[in-house]
């Protein structure tokens, strides 16, 4: 199965343009829109091959960065923090796609040809390589047959380094930081096959644009020096969890991604044990050593004034009696600390008691761990079957999705061995649940076909635990197998749907159709929540490879052995610490709090609804009428009022190197700059470029440019002039289209009433309210404004009926589809006539405080309902404005 990529996701385009616009003013690439005889382009020939070349000075770059930051609502940088640029994108929103497409955009627009992607691990390296493979046809469609090479650096194949430097076509190299951060690396050694040069010298000569994937894992001084040794033109840093931010250009944090429905909703299915205070309970939470003592933190049951409570205590002395510490609870008699050992790893650390009991970190007695793990497996399978059933009933044949469940375990033997307890528990639960009558329509395969483990293997081929602290060659092979099977796992013809992997390999998993995640750990330390959910946040794809954005099925269920509130609190704390945002726990859904809005009995016989539906059910088509002369006049005025176009400059810097005991430092001694003059032979095809961007005729564009009186500015800075003109014309065109739009009712074409039946409305206790005056028993709200509006509609005497229109009620506009909020039947006090209206709720009437495209869509909606009979359209901030 081939995954289909969407090229029009606005948030991704915004992230791409944030980087591309930093180089605004760089000469447009020779080729599609430019005939260049002698002009400067994005590449120059160096001693060892072709190199990237930057014309812009720091002053221009800073101005561009500030413009990008202002547009994206980011704090404005007062000065450049080097040529390092950070892009923040939440896990699952297409970060890798964004930076790969950015490479193509920078090549097409500015002619940059040398790019290096630096990664911190084999897992991420394999993910990047896989993305380059599966996006090949997609990028071919977008950018034509641009020749390009991509490959993973291999110290045994140094000829590729020479090709990287000498080729004049687009080059993309993927390299692990460990391949060049030591003097002993082949990269940093003179090689005969490279004529006695070091491989890194070839890279340095190309002045590559370096893309750093997950830079927070490469923040050591050693890693920074290694990256700087590549002699980058600039670095582009992509992550969801930056440790340090440099010249931030774009931010899509978890809160924004969640609000825009770019990731799955998170649900937690908690499995907890009910404390049995009759038996001794001891959980080892940590063991730490200092110069003077070794301390163990234990969770035990302690007598309090309110009865026994589970609390954490610290012990560091041999001979400590838990019978005394617990408040003389009989269950702890005999549990006297013999000694505490802090090893080099958590696996080696333990506490020993005089009665022979010995517990490692994470181990416990009296807590029913096996029973909890067994039930976690059962609930994972149950959630999986529920999701398969939901998809089968919700989607037509040919547009369904494969459902995957992911188990992370910390002891491979518990699954890999035939009698392993996790394998045994899974088989038992699957066989039991698959026989339930409610799941028979799924036609489930036999148990031996549906589960598989992806584990590292030893030299004899036996599956083994992976290292939590370092990556081995065996781990690399497991990653490669995971990535190789990615598309196969998405096929409905492939019965495999339950995946087991070692918890240390969590980073390598990246499959969009993971809907359930279950971590079954016995002895390891606690896992970060963002890491745990990260493998399942990405939106799923259907059997044809298309991304599915249906909130009805886009939910990730985490089957956890902890309380929902604890999980939510820890996740919130991590996000606040990682991203410096406030993340409300209400954004995480508790499965038991899930609610559905149901159609009330005889809803389609409700006279108020039927009268309203008769008025709003008609489909329309729109036409846009505008006077070309008016367009030329307004667009030429907009071009005339553009900011001043400044000439680009070449900057020459000379620096003196000082070699001291502290290292090599540089000191700038001379700075020169020179304006670039263009002759007619190197001018871009102005009309062709603007026509492609605006779809206007060449004649219209020529008239706009002539009447603007700014055509002479093209000689100052051609690329900047083109960018500004396109921006001015597009804005004018949108405004004119909206003003001149007319809707016409299509005879015989109507929205079907069944769209109310087909629309599944689900939410949670905290974003749904019960109502009485609607065809649904509940209303889902997206803001406090909507909540108050719905409550008022339901209580006001003058409101006879209302319904929140489903998302499938779409009105077509030149700017994209538009769905209004409410349809209402109103009867004012003392009047017999009823008023039928559609309302859009907003927090303010001030158009300047709303997005421009939002205002334009509302105006299109107003024009649509104007074409219908006996129906009003209003934009309101509260229900009182209806009267």
From TrEMBL:
Any one GO molecular-function label of the UniProt entry: ATP binding
PROSITE patterns: HELICASE_ATP_BIND_1
InterPro entries: Helicase/UvrB_N, Helicase_ATP-bd, P-loop_NTPase, RE_endonuc_C
Domain Helicase ATP-binding: 76-260
Pfam families, per database record: RE_endonuc, ResIII
Protein name listed in UniProt: Type III restriction-modification system StyLTI enzyme res
Organism this protein belongs to: Anoxybacillus thermarum
Lineage summary: Bacteria, Bacillati, Bacillota, Bacilli, Bacillales
